[in-house]
Design brief:
Order of helices and strands: EHEEHEEHEHEHHEHHEHH
CATH superfamily: Metal-dependent hydrolases
Largest sheet: 6 strands, parallel
Bound molecules: fe (ii) ion
Number of strands: 9
CATH topology: TIM Barrel
Distance between the termini: 24 Å
CATH class: Alpha Beta
Structural class: alpha/beta
């Protein structure tokens, strides 16, 4: 089993549309551990006009779940984070510390509405950088404008944005077209992170093992290690990729 790190996971109980309770989170942790996941960054949604979990509570809940994991003999290390739904507030929220970056680093996981035009995504990524943070675009395969123009992904990478893809998308859960797109990006080394974006124990479980094997076989062990261990570890350590 190859060890992995998951930088995008809705395992924090009772705060968003992810795990509803501690029991589910515990089951998700067990699934993650079986998948070779040794570190997880908890990324509850942070959305405009929503009751978001504050950074203080985020850290408290992460520590609480870590304690429960240890008590249950689960050897997975947990860190605080957010999946930031980009809005006009994001710049101020980031600079004033009202959002959790990934594991306290300068890396910020940012998502958009699936139909947001590329221009809006591009401008938003620039704003995150202007605020002094390093953007990671969450599940790039979900934005229709990006899927139909893969050169846009290249443009974002060129401007210093990092790209995250969901493991389930690579493995074909969202159809051939999406899977094909993610493989094209992998082939062109335009992906920096593969994560679970897990929400539950069933349809959106924290599965990485099969995807990790697939990437190793198809795109090489070295790239697989970078996507699922080295780059995520750089985020946890607050180092440059
Ligand atoms: Fe997510």
């Amino acid at each position: 089993m190859q060890a992995s790190i998951d930088i995008h996971c809705h395992i924090m109980p009772g705060v968003d549309d992810g795990s509803p309770d501690v029991e589910t989170s515990l089951k998700m942790l067990k699934i993650a551990e079986k998948n070779g996941i040794e570190h997880i960054i908890l990324t509850p949604h942070h959305k405009p006009m929503h009751h978001n979990v504050s950074p203080d509570h985020n850290k408290k809940y992460t520590a609480g779940l870590q304690e429960i994991a240890i008590k249950n003999g689960i050897n997975v290390k947990l860190y605080s984070g957010n999946e930031i739904y980009y809005s006009d507030e994001t710049f101020d929220e980031l600079t004033s510390g009202r959002i959790c970056t990934l594991a306290g680093s300068d890396y910020a996981l940012v998502e958009f509405h699936p139909t947001n035009p590329y221009k809006a995504i591009h401008n938003a990524i620039y704003q995150v950088q202007a605020a002094g943070f390093i953007p990671i675009l969450a599940h790039v395969e979900r934005y229709s404008d990006m899927v139909s123009h893969s050169s846009y992904v290249e443009e974002l990478v060129d401007m210093g944005c990092y790209i995250q893809v969901n493991a389930s998308s690579i493995m074909g859960k969202y159809g051939f077209g999406i899977s094909h797109f993610t493989k094209k990006l992998l082939k062109n080394r335009l992906v920096h992170f593969v994560a679970t974006d897990a929400h539950d124990t069933d349809k959106r479980a924290p599965l990485l093992a099969d995807c990790r094997d697939f990437i190793s076989k198809k795109f090489g062990q070295d790239y697989s290690d970078r996507l699922l261990w080295n780059n995520p570890m750089s985020v946890i350590r607050g180092e440059m990729i």
